[in-house]
Amino acid sequence: MDSEQADNSEQFRQTEALLSAAMAFAVCGDALTRDDLSGPGRLERLMEAQGALMAAAGPGHRVRFTGLLERLTGAETGSMAGLMPEWADPGSLDGLRFLDVDGVTPGEAFDFRLEAERVIRAAKKVGRFAGRVTFTALEDEHSQESVFSAIKGPYYERHRTNLIEHPVVLEKEPADAISDRPALADLDLPTRAVDFYRPVPQHARYRGWWFPCPACKWPMKVSVHHSEGRDQGSAWCLYPWHEQTGATYRFEPTQGEPPVLNPVFPCGVPHGRQGELWTGCVPEVPQAQPVDGHKALVRSVWRSTCVPGLPELRLHRVLNRHLQGTGWRAELWVDGDRIDLHVAKDDGQQRKAAFPADFKDYTFVSHLVDKLHMDSGDKGNAKWLVVADHREAQVATLDPVCRGYGMRAITASGYVDEVLAAIREGRA
Known about the structure:
InterPro entries: pPIWI_RE_REase
Organism: Kitasatospora misakiensis
Pfam families: pPIWI_RE_REase
Oligomer: single chain
Shape: globular
Number of helices: 15
Structural class: alpha+beta
Protein name: REase associating with pPIWI RE domain-containing protein
Order of helices and strands: HHHHHHHEHEEEEHEEHEEHEHEEHEHEH
Helix content: 40-55%
Largest sheet: 5 strands, mixed
Domain REase associating with pPIWI RE: 309-426
Radius of gyration: 23 Å
Number of strands: 14
Number of domains: 3
Distance between the termini: 44 Å
């Protein structure tokens, strides 16, 4: 084994250990929040999590059960600091909590787990890392690969668009026919994809009500805490950028009536190209919706399909609006999703295609860099790696890596400008 391979193996060992720890905290969250578990059942799940943490830490490092309980209920709730051995370098996740005080995985920690899973899967596929992590049936059932497998075929674009635009659906047709949400049956999804919709999650419920995020329409996290002598309710989107752009609210607890949300801070939408491509929060205060009669995408499908899909759809539509009259058109999820987007033109008997792009939405840029190395660039031969405008800071890290594989990294706004300039100047 050469030094580069050894370095990679050590890096993936660290990623795997932190992934195992993140999954252990997820097991704890499940134990704390599920209504169908008895006391012994909860204890069994917590002991399972302790075993997973010790397996991740490796021989010679003991994770005390009392220490784990302190991370679930004390001041260090959800923190990994001091829990894992030094070689795992949990300091790289300084400040990141893997559970909140309600036993729910926060947005960034959830992203860490999903992204680390992709890296480890990719490394194992190309034989770069053997590792110990095995993924449960539940995780496999809702992975990106499983979503693709469930909806692939001649209606792939329609099915994927439905998952993106309708993260919450009605269980059946409404009697009054006034809801703006379709019934699940109306989406005409393949049977395997229908199972991606489940009852509104417990963390999003308040006395029979839930609130849709104005940006993505998925149920927001709800919490009620006692502060300054009274109860105070909060609701916010579990995708951090939606929360940071305005999808965070307060409400007064109610009895029998739906609560009314009040924004924590004003929501502003930018102008210009970024405004065209904006998929953050909008100044539209959500109204309480009844839990009964609704189903929502499971969280992993929402995060891996709906959240990045919204800017993909917006990019496609904005490009086509600007391409009207040029003879060019933007095409989405080309060749069965080999690439996410390109522009094409019928020129006599020939068909021209340009700017093949792959859209990525990673919270941890190091995971995306690792994934690029595992895939030797893009498996679909995309030449552009596009990130949403709010990930602009990642471009400086990604572009040198991309160039090593014949690609370029760019923001969505930059990609639109580049495509339109090339067509206008005859370079496409």
